[in-house]
Write a structure and sequence with these properties.
- There is one protein chain.
- The chain has 13 helices and 13 strands.
- The protein has a 7-stranded mixed sheet with strand order 2-8-7-6-5-3-4, sandwiched between helices. Strands 9-10-13-12 form a 4-stranded antiparallel sheet, covered by helices on one side. Strands 1-11 form a two-stranded parallel ribbon.
- A hairpin with a 3-residue loop joins strand 12 and strand 13.
- It folds into 2 domains: 4-30 and 306-408, Aspartate Aminotransferase, domain 1, CATH 3.90.1150.10; 45-303, Aspartate Aminotransferase, domain 2 (3-Layer(aba) Sandwich).
- The radius of gyration is 22 Å and the shape is globular.
- It has 417 residues and is of the alpha/beta class.
Length: 417
């Protein structure tokens, strides 16, 4: 079997590491929470800042990247990453604001169908958004928000999802990849099961976009939302994205705003809303140009590397990581599904002292991610993680556990009040 050094020498994506700002001697394993800055992204942000400096208000229509159509231009480049048509995707908003937009648009409760199904392991913001929509419609979340429970506290079973798809359910909203365990859900199967029962299906792609290819249109998914600051490396608070299947494009946006207008009529300033064609209609306010800019540079890298090559290397890295940690650090419990088709881009380990262990890793210049109450997430990123880096992580973890250096730290998350 090839050594990590030999695999690095044969890695077709190895050259991309130099595109990113990686601190020397540090192994960054938290790209599933916030990706690193690339040189291309820094350059594009400077270009967009210079367009403001040079053109002032004329930057909306002048320069290399005119602001007025920047979101539409970028959406056409993001669309292949999620397996959708350019007219079905829009770079806009954030995950939570886009959930609000999608639910306000597609969730039309009736006396027969008024429930929304979520899962007990989802990220809290998604749950807050669902609760607020139910309350706004005069519905009690305690009755109309149904949660799919987990059997093991880490993953979901397809049978348990299907069991919740009763005749009174209007919408099913799930993550594509569970943020704690890294489980990748079977999107096509779930969508088909829900559609057979007349239920709309939405997915939060926060932990899958940029880590793997998607087929949202062909899988029949009704809507999806995501951020670009994790695997897509667009920077903290970077503009997010939404997808709405073309069969729903006749719907007026539930939250209308002037950037959802037909662009040929937007500056007519008419009080009658002229809806844009496609997903562009579901924008709300003026685009955040500087928050979008780094994504331009990131997209260059994805187009050069190819999302399928990114996924292949990601699978190889995560396989090596779990193999080495399993051999050297048996104290850590691997809670991520074993099958390639059932996991995202990170591996999650459970341990009662997880917060302490993460702090010890940081002191050793390994940057992990802690998720309460007991999860260590490690995400080797295809663009800037080598096979040798993964081996180093396993070695450091073994040393920390064997020497119990984690006991030098408190077992709680450091949070600035």
């Amino acid at each position: 079997m090839a050594t990590s050094k030999e695999r690095d020498q044969q890695d077709p994506l190895a050259g991309f590491k130099q595109e990113f700002f990686v601190e020397k001697e540090t192994v960054y394993m938290d790209g599933n929470s916030l990706g690193l800055m690339s040189r291309r992204s820094e350059e594009k942000l400077k270009v967009l800042m210079d367009s403001w400096k040079t053109f002032g208000i004329d930057g909306w229509t002048e320069g290399e990247h005119p602001w007025f159509t920047l979101a539409e231009t970028m959406s056409g480049r993001v669309a292949p990453l999620v397996g959708a048509g350019a007219h079905e995707v829009m770079v806009t908003g954030s995950i939570t604001s886009n959930i609000h937009q999608m639910l306000s648009t597609v969730f039309q409760p009736t006396s027969e169908r008024s429930a929304i199904v979520v899962d007990s392991l989802n990220f809290p913001s998604d749950i807050y958004a669902v609760e607020s929509h139910l309350r706004l419609r005069g519905l009690d979340p305690a009755e109309s928000m149904r949660k799919i429970e987990s059997r093991d506290g880490y993953t979901l079973e397809l049978d348990d999802i299907v069991e919740q798809l009763t005749d009174d359910v209007a919408v099913l909203l799930l993550p594509s990849v569970l943020y704690r365990s890294g489980q990748l859900l079977p999107i096509r199967e779930i969508t088909e099961e829900a559609h057979q029962k007349g239920i709309l299906v939405g997915f939060d792609l926060a932990h899958s976009i940029g880590a793997m290819p998607h087929n949202l249109h062909d899988d029949g998914v009704d809507f999806a939302v995501w951020c670009h600051y994790k695997y897509m490396n667009s920077g903290p608070g970077g503009t997010g994205g939404l997808y709405l299947h073309e069969r729903h494009h006749h719907l007026l946006p539930g939250n209308a705003g002037w950037f959802g207008s037909d662009k040929t009529r937007q500056f007519d300033m008419d009080h009658e809303f002229s809806k844009a064609e496609g997903a562009g209609a579901y924008q709300i306010g003026t685009p955040h140009i500087f928050s979008m800019a780094p994504l331009l540079g990131s997209l260059d890298l994805f187009e050069e590397a190819g999302i399928h090559a990114v996924r292949q290397k990601s699978l190889e890295l995560t396989s090596l990581l779990r193999e080495l940690v399993g051999q050297r650090v048996p104290q850590l419990v691997d809670v991520t599904p074993l099958e390639d088709e059932a996991r995202g881009g990170h591996i999650a380990f459970s341990h009662p002292e997880a917060a302490r262990i993460c702090k010890a890793l940081k002191e050793a210049k390994i940057i992990p991610d802690f998720r309460a109450p007991n999860i260590i997430r490690l995400a080797p990123i295809a663009f800037y993680t080598s096979f040798s880096d993964v081996e180093k992580v396993a070695e450091k973890l073994q040393s920390i556990m064997d020497n119990e250096t984690y006991k030098n730290f408190s077992n709680e998350r450091n949070v600035v009040a």
